[in-house]
């Protein structure tokens, strides 16, 4: 079967045929809700502002839950909502068992959980265990050496009040140590100096955070995304970290050192295995669906995979997979296959599930990286690979980075520099308010000044236009993709992948009921003719289009003969990708 393809095109075939023998990954395992879930990340400050104060809030999320249900997602992962001074957008927590007053109240949260569950949407909370705010009562008590709290944080003597205990560097640059004039000791902060690291070598601290987990479980939470977990423990001897030797890195920057004393220590994994037992025991005792844990780790793959299991104990249901962030405009078929296989081939053997993510609140938006007309194709890749799919709010409508000046910036890691570095490193561009419609402030609120500026692009890119248009749209494509995930090939289908040309890759998802899909992706700079049957010999000859991207000349219902499928050149920049689904006729 020869199929001509053009630059940046993706074709998806939903097909039906008899299965041959295969050594590919099988999904016939013990199923639970999360294993094939679409998890939708909500950045609460920017999602919806119900009281018109310029900040998103819990009641704003409640009012937009019907959108999540309509989009076909299974769970909402909500970035931190805890009480906080907001030095680091809520990751500096002053009370782990209360809500930031700008977001609402605990009663609002309870209503959110109830309303979500009525729509069959799970709620996943961010858990930020590595540190607290310096405004937390624990820190104030510890700084004053109050009995029982002396060692809740990582305190250390230095040579003097101006010379820190060692050379450790904060993720946000400069020394990871801050001197306390009150206690006359240094405390560790691997992030901002207002985020002191908790001391998990004190068993009382582990007990406190475990009680935090149970507090939110009792309020109906279905799981947690554990933030910045690799930094949880530090070297007990507080030794200096070695120099990295990386070129172009200045002595105050995080990458100046190799972080073998402040990251990925064995004790961290033991806590994750323990918390998995806490979650499993809670589910067993209370009943209902599994309560899950997903963890954020930017560590090397072997260290990241240990969050699944150490071979004897299970840990996180999955650690986040950032491999798709490595796909770029010039990626070849082999590059994409390597990115996917890099995760699949490093996973532990057994009953473990992969996951995929295009972007989040810390990354350039996917539509900016790949081009706004190409988001359909990358949503397809994210949603149709085996396992869990994670969507950052706005990706379903192709939102691009917003426009934020250095003066308007809120990201402490980027504002801790000059204007030039802000423009290249700030996370604010991916955090601007959601585009609901073409009214004032994109429907985020009814006119109050917003905490970050609303992007000028909202008039051409917003949910209401895409939802109601008679034409195809990114949102309509996204809905069809999430609907297709409910079909057998996507829930339990085998997975095979091949490079069929230098810049053309294909993969299949085929169920034991003999139905499935073929996906073909061309990232090259010119057209190509490929023979799929050399790699997938069971393909049939006549196919029907089920879904097409907004740039495709094919429409739903078209019939295609596989020996003459053509993809046409698109004269646009940044991976001008189109795709369509086809079903055997």
TrEMBL record:
Entry-linked CDD domains: AmyAc_maltase
GO molecular function list: alpha-1,4-glucosidase activity
Signal peptide coordinates: 1-24
Coiled coil: none
Domain Glycosyl hydrolase family 13 catalytic, chain residue ranges per copy: 41-431
UniProt-listed Pfam families: Alpha-amylase
This protein's name: alpha-glucosidase
């Amino acid at each position: 079967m020869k199929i001509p393809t053009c630059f940046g095109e993706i074709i998806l075939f939903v097909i039906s045929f008899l299965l041959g023998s295969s050594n590919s990954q099988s999904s016939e395992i013990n199923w639970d809700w999360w294993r094939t879930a679409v998890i939708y990340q909500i950045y609460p400050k920017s999602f919806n502002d119900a009281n018109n104060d310029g900040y998103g809030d819990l009641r704003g999320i409640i009012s937009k839950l019907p959108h999540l249900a309509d989009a076909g997602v299974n769970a909402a992962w909500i970035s931190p909502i805890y009480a906080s001074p907001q030095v680091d957008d809520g990751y500096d927590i002053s009370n782990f068992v209360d809500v930031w007053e700008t977001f609402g109240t605990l009663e609002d949260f309870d209503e959110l959980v109830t309303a979500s569950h009525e729509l069959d949407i799970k709620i996943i909370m961010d858990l930020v265990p590595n540190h607290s705010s310096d405004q937390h009562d624990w820190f104030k008590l510890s700084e004053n050496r109050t009995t029982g709290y002396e060692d809740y944080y990582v305190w250390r003597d230095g040579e003097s009040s101006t010379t820190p205990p060692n050379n450790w560097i904060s993720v946000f640059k400069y020394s990871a140590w801050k001197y306390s004039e009150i206690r006359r000791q240094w405390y560790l902060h691997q992030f901002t100096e207002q985020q002191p690291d908790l001391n998990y070598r004190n068993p009382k601290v582990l007990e406190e955070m475990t009680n935090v987990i149970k507090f939110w479980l009792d309020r109906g939470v279905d799981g947690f995304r554990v933030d910045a977990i690799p930094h949880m423990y530090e070297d007990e001897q507080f030794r200096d970290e070695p120099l990295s030797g990386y070129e172009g890195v200045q002595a105050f920057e995080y990458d100046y050192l190799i972080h073998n004393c402040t990251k990925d220590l064995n004790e961290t994994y033991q806590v994750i295995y323990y918390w998995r037992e806490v979650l499993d025991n809670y589910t067993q005792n209370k009943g209902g669906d599994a309560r899950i844990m997903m963890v954020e780790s930017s560590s090397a793959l072997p260290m990241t995979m240990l969050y699944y299991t150490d071979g004897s104990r299970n840990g996180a249901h999955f650690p986040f997979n950032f491999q798709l962030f490595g796909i770029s405009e010039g990626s070849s078929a082999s590059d994409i296959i390597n990115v996917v296989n890099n995760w699949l081939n490093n996973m532990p053997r057994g009953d473990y599930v992969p996951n995929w993510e295009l972007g989040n609140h810390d990354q350039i938006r996917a539509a900016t990286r790949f081009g706004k007309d190409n988001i359909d194709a990358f949503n397809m890749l994210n949603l149709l690979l085996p396992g869990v799919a994670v969507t950052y709010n706005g990706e379903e409508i192709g939102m691009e980075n917003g426009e934020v000046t250095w003066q308007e910036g809120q990201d402490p890691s980027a504002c801790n520099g000059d204007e030039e570095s802000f423009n290249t490193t700030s996370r604010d561009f991916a955090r601007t308010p959601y585009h609901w419609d073409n009214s004032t402030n994109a429907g985020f609120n009814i006119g109050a000044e917003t905490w970050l500026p609303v992007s000028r692009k909202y008039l051409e890119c917003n949910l209401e236009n895409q939802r109601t248009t008679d034409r195809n749209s990114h949102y309509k494509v996204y809905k069809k993709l999430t609907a297709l995930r409910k079909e057998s090939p996507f829930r339990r289908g085998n997975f095979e992948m091949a490079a069929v040309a230098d810049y053309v890759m294909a993969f299949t998802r085929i169920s034991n009921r003999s139905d499935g899909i073929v996906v073909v992706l061309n990232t090259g700079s010119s057209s190509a003719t490929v023979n799929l049957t050399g790699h997938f010999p069971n393909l049939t000859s006549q196919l029907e289009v089920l879904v097409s991207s907004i740039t495709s000349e094919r429409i739903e219902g078209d019939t295609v003969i596989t020996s003459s499928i053509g993809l046409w050149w698109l004269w646009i920049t940044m991976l001008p990708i189109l795709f369509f689904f086809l079903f055997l006729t």
